[in-house]
Amino acid sequence: MALIVQKFGGSSLANASRVMAAARKAIKAKQAGNQVIVVVSARGDTTDDLIQLAREITDNPPAREMDMLLATGEQISIALLAMAIATLGEKAVSLTGAQVGIVTDSTHTKARIRTISTNRMRQALAEGNIAIVAGFQGIDEKENITTLGRGGSDTTAVALAAVMKTEGVEGNKVDCEIYTDVDGIYTTDPRLVPEARKIDFISYDEMLELSSVGAGVMHTRSIEFARKFNVPVLVCSSFGDADGTWIIPEQSWMANTPVRGVALVKDEARIAILNVPDRPGISHQFFTALASRAIVVDMIAQNVSQNGKTTIGFTVPTEELKNTLAILTPLALELGAKVENSGEVSKVSIVGVGMRSHIGVAQRMFNAIAKEGINLRMITTADIKISVLVEKSEGIKALRAVHQEFGLGLVENNINPGDRHAKMGCSNTDLASITSRLPNMEDILVTEVTVEADQGRITAFHLPDHPGTCSSIFGSIAQVGIVVDMIVQNVHTNGVDLSFSVPSGNLQKALEVTQKWIGIHAKNATVAADPDITAIHVHGVGMRTHTGVASKMFGVLADLGININMINTSEMKISVVVDHDKAQSAVIALKEVFLIS
Ligand code: ADP
Ligand code: ASP
Ligand code: MG
User: Fold this and answer.
1) Is 151 in the pocket of ligand 2 (CB under 6 A)?
2) Backbone phi, psi, residue 71, to 5°
3) Which residues pair with 186 in a beta bridge?
4) Domain of 306?
């Protein structure tokens, strides 16, 4: 017998008729011969309303009590849904996170799951029940109620599917269905871009990146679970029967499309630290100070130094700006550096496994934005993602331009491969290694440290700060057929600095093209080439949501006295560029610290 975990979001339970509709979906799955677990969110705007209730008392509620309050939203939903199912003549039992045994750490309001017991759920299912579980909540070791962070019910659903798959279900056949108010994952948020199209299949990595750069349709951590435990996830509408979107392991045909989706974060705060002494360990100091106060740094762009000084640009959520400045300003002062608040920005990102092999993807993105007269405030790239910052007010315009540039609203974005299951590749061949991840199931999974030598880097300083600069430079580079790997662009009061890496064999050509471009367009700019750089990548799952990884990595390099020349972060990979002769010792130390044999 197969097991289906269904999850219903807030809008799917907003009134009595929707609760009844959800009950019917669960019953239908059961009557088709499956065991069924249903995970629910709080109804409608309940969680927001609960937060408002707390605000009426205090601006600064104790986190433990906040969790006690927030968890009530989901408790209402489980009871009502169980009643609805009973009314329709099926057996159901409602369970809180604590009753199931979802044990988390004690980080109230953003707790991470440690273990989940399958006993109670198995027992409920064996007795012929539909098991209804409150999403978003758990208990810590001292039995305090915890919550997983906003949107966390998705994570509960996928995590339950993962544990049931590994130790709860005969034959390990488990699907996870996320029912929501859209009929699947779209090329971008359909509320922002009406031409957005539904995607039939998306890889875990693409979904992980998209959700971490603003696609709020799935909780990022739920995709970490899906990927780590090989759970296929179907996202579909709770209001109809249309085919949804499957989130599955990467398939070779997915690379045919350069860009799978685009996303927007409407408001982030951008900070630049100028005149940072380019010595080992300096960035480590800044980011450790922020990590110790649980401030999640988002986009990091560290450029190559000039005259022994470098600029570090990064973003934080707007609500963290004040704290961030307070922490960094004295630190910067000690080092003779300067912290600059560069204002509120929007972040536009494109994601797709196909961009690894398609030339000129970055240039097309920059060009589409430049054509709208919008200036790029910062650029960072990662394996399957390119993010840019623009002025806050121009975010949606830039998003639409990029969506259109890649034809995401027009063409068939996804070849629908006939036989779904054959293409899904979620077989159980590696069950043993999956099971070994069950203790501390949400811990960071660092899988590999790899090195990419034979790289060269070009850096241009003092480029003109106006729309079209990067588009034009990368247009020239693409024209000669050179694949650009990492791009880091930082804008600050001293000008625009741009660095990018290319394969060694192309360095000379890329330098000539850049020099020629500067000769024509930017007389004050200077350019430098570095033939001997090496990129080191630490691979894993959820590398950015686990803030400690980057900090640990920078720490290891600082201890070895190794200077970091460029940094890039993504959900699957944190990359740094170091001098070639330091790479070997860095890799050995990193493998040691991340316990990779
Ligand atoms: P639920 O309450 O079911 O968890 P959410 O509000 O968390 O639902 O997520 C669904 C919403 O996510 C959609 O209504 C849509 O506006 C938004 N969204 C953002 N990006 C995307 C995307 N790429 N595809 C689909 N929906 C998206
Ligand atoms: N009810 C919680 C929230 O609104 C969890 C969820 O909906 O996933 O964030
Ligand atoms: Mg949600």
Assistant:
1) yes
2) -65, -20
3) 198
4) 263-406+444-593
Residue predicted with more confidence, 178 or 501: 178
- Give first-to-last CA distance, the chain, whole Å: 39
Q: Is 245 in the pocket of ligand 2 (CB under 6 A)?
A: no
Task: Name the percent of the chain lying above pLDDT 70.
Answer: 94
Residue nearest to atom 4 of ligand 2 (CA): 47
Is the model's pLDDT at 93 over the cut of 50?
Answer: yes
8 A C-beta contact, residue 270 and residue 378:
yes
Q: Can you tell me which atom of ligand 1 is nearest the CA of 181?
A: 14
pLDDT score, position 494: 67
Which ligand has its closest atom nearest to the C-alpha of 148?
Answer: 2
Answer whether residue 103 is part of any domain: yes
Tens digits of residue pLDDT in 469-500: 999 999 999 889 888 888 888 777 667 888 89
Question: pLDDT grade, residue 546 (50/70/90)?
Answer: confident
Indicate if 498 and 373 belong to the same structural domain. Answer: yes
The dihedral through the CA atoms of 430, 436, 440, 443 has a sign that is: negative
**From CA 7, how far away is CA 153, in angstroms rounded?**
8
Looking at the fold, whether 132 and 272 belong to one and the same domain comes out as no
Across the beta sheet with 261-277, the strand order is 300-302, 309-317, 261-277, 338-351, 385-391, 378-382, 487-492, 495-503, 445-463, 526-541, 573-579, 566-569
CB atoms near residue 53 (< 10 Å): 11
Angle at 175 (CA atoms; ends 385, 90), nearest 5 degrees: 140
Q: Which of 176, 199, 234 is the last residue of a domain?
A: 176
Distance (angstroms) between ligand 2 centre and the Cα of 14 equals 13
For 276-290, 369-383, 405-419, 552-566, which range has the lowest pLDDT when averaged over its residues? 405-419
Total number of domains constituting the chain: 2
- Among the ranges 339-348, 389-398, 482-491, which has the highest mean pLDDT value? 389-398
Domain boundary among 154, 176, 198: 176
Which amino acid does the sequence have at 454? D
Looking at the fold, whether 388 and 503 belong to one and the same domain comes out as yes
Asked whether residue 81 is domain-assigned, the answer is yes
**Dist CA 429 CA 129 (whole Å):** 30
In a domain, 254, yes or no: no
Q: How much distance in Å is there from the Cα of 216 to the middle of ligand 3?
A: 7
User: Residue 411 pLDDT > 80, yes or no?
Assistant: no
**Residues 157, 269 share a domain:** no
The average pLDDT across 456-466 equals 89
* Residue of 195, 200, 212, 217 with the most ligand 1 atoms within 8 Å of its CB, for mutation: 217
Q: Is 15 helix (H, G, I), strand (E, B) or coil?
A: coil
- Predicted confidence band of residue 111 (pLDDT cuts 50, 70, 90): very high
Query: Does 500 fall in a domain?
Result: yes
Say whether both 60 and 158 belong to one domain: yes
- CATH number, domain containing residue 481: 3.30.2130.10
